Amino acid sequence: xxxxxxSPRHKVTETGTPVTLRCHQTENHRYMYWYRQDPGHGLRLIxxxxxxxxxxxxxVSDGYSVSRSKTEDFLLTLESATSSQTSVYFCAISNTxxxxxxxxxxxxxxxxx
Amino acid sequence: GDSVTQMEGPVTLSExxxxxxxxxxxxxxxxxxxxxxxxxGEGLQLLLKATKADDKGSNKGFEATYRxxxxxxxxxxxxxxxxxxxxxxxxxxxxxxxxxxxxxGTKLSVIP
Lengths: 113, 112
Prior knowledge:
The complex is a heterodimer.
Chain A: E1 4-7, E2 10-13, E3 19-25, E4 31-38, E5 42-51, E6 54-57, E7 64-70, E8 73-78, E9 87-94, E10 103-104, E11 108-112
Parallel strand pairs in A: 2-11
Antiparallel strand pairs in A: 1-3, 3-8, 4-5, 4-9, 5-6, 7-8, 9-10, 9-11
Chain B: E1 3-6, E2 11-14, E3 19-21, E4 23-26, E5 32-38, E6 44-50, E7 56-59, E8 62-65, E9 75-77, E10 86-93, E11 100-102, E12 106-111
């Protein structure tokens, strides 16, 4: 398995609070991604990074921000969590980006009450 | 825009039955195609891939052929096992793109 660790694995929090999810990789891959998985939607891309301090928006980026200060860490922040952001969040990595498969972490289950 | 459509689930099969999960895509250029599998409580794992027309991806008894003429990438397995119970995602990556586009997933349950 690719060396990807997501933390925390589970979190319950209240509406309006800030939340940060962490993805840590030991593969030295250049590209990192954050997805959310919701019933009936498959996975949808939130943000991705193509290098240290290089990030871009995905399909469902509203309400989320990201940061990548080191190759191995990619943080996803919900500045003020809302109930619509209750979901399972997956981090993924890939080495070359273009047309290549991505390797996924085990996910973070986030519940916002 | 680019999209992928896979058959709705859930699908329930008896052990040793034949499996087909249909997948078609709409894309410009020549995408790469993948099937991912998600076992309960786990992340997604790459099952197989194909990067050009007529390529056949295979792994663990599963196969899928990249059919450009029908824009399809159907997943097949000749004899399913209980351990194949999972959600299967058809996925593509557009030519020159970093991003993956996911189908909605098909839940497969195999009963003894």
